[in-house]
């Protein structure tokens, strides 16, 4: 992951030309990441598709695809983009139509670990999501074939392939066998 020394705003980030890279803004610092590979994309779809279908069928809110930016802070700006995100219907309606970055955190953020992700970077993302108000963070690790579940103030738990991940009170009633993420 490369960084720059000049502080940037969320508006400047939004206006960056498409260079084929993924970008986030952390306290005004631009972070650039290589595009993810096929395994990463497939696992993200295996999570986002059933989540989106359930959310739509039950009118619970909205699921957002990878690279949807959420503005977590301003002055300096922080914009993060999870691999999969969910916002409750009440929040979607309160925010309204947004062409730029969504204000505030998602209710659920999921990160799929890429081969080039360092554990410290993944933990930093989890900590950032939780610190800014995300209520459920899922870290899907294709190599380990696990899902690590994070909630504010509760010790993280690790789910194996024989387990079932759930939306708990964030996406009530939604469940998915962990093994389905890796098919």
Descriptive notes:
The protein has 183 residues and is an alpha+beta fold. 25% of the residues lie in helices and 34% in strands. The protein has four helices and 14 strands. The strands form four sheets. A six-stranded mixed β-sheet has the order 4-7-9-10-11-12, sandwiched between helices. Strands 1-3-2 form a three-stranded antiparallel β-sheet, with no helix packed on it. Strand 2 and strand 3 form a beta hairpin. The longest helix is centred in the N-terminal third of the chain and has 20 residues. It is globular. The two termini are 29 Å apart. The model has no long low-confidence stretch (mean pLDDT 93).
Write a brief structural summary.
This protein has 183 residues and is an alpha+beta fold.
SSE blueprint:
Elements: E1 2-7, H1 10-14, E2 22-26, E3 29-33, H2 38-57, E4 61-64, E5 70-73, E6 78-80, E7 84-88, H3 89-95, E8 102-103, E9 108-112, H4 119-131, E10 136-141, E11 146-151, E12 154-159, E13 164-166, E14 175-177
Parallel strand pairs: 5-8, 9-10
Antiparallel strand pairs: 1-3, 2-3, 4-7, 5-6, 7-9, 10-11, 11-12, 13-14
Which key phrases capture this entry?
25% helix; 14 strands; three-stranded antiparallel β-sheet; 4 helices; 183 residues; alpha+beta; six-stranded mixed β-sheet
Q: What is the total tally of β strands?
A: 14
Please work out how many helical segments DSSP would assign. 4
- Percent in helix: 10-25%
Q: Give a short account of the largest sheet.
A: 6 strands, mixed
The gyration radius over C-alpha positions equals: 16 Å
The H-and-E topology, N to C, reads as EHEEHEEEEHEEHEEEEE
């Amino acid at each position: 992951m490369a960084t720059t020394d000049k502080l940037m705003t969320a508006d400047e980030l939004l206006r960056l030309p498409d260079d084929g890279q993924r970008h986030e803004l952390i306290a005004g610092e631009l972070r650039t990441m290589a595009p993810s590979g096929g395994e990463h994309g497939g696992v993200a779809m295996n999570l986002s598709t059933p989540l989106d279908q359930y959310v739509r069928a039950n009118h619970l809110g909205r699921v957002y695809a990878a690279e949807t930016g959420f503005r977590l802070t301003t002055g300096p700006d922080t914009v993060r983009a999870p691999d999969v995100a969910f916002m409750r219907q009440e929040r979607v309606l309160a925010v309204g139509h947004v062409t730029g970055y969504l204000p505030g955190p998602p209710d659920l953020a999921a990160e799929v670990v890429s081969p080039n992700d360092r554990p410290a970077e993944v933990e930093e993302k989890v900590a950032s999501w939780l610190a800014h108000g995300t209520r459920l963070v899922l870290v899907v690790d294709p190599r380990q074939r696990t899902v690590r579940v994070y909630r504010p103030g509760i010790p993280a738990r690790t789910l194996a392939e024989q387990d079932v991940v759930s939306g708990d009170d964030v996406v009530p009633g939604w469940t998915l066998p962990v093994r389905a993420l890796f098919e």
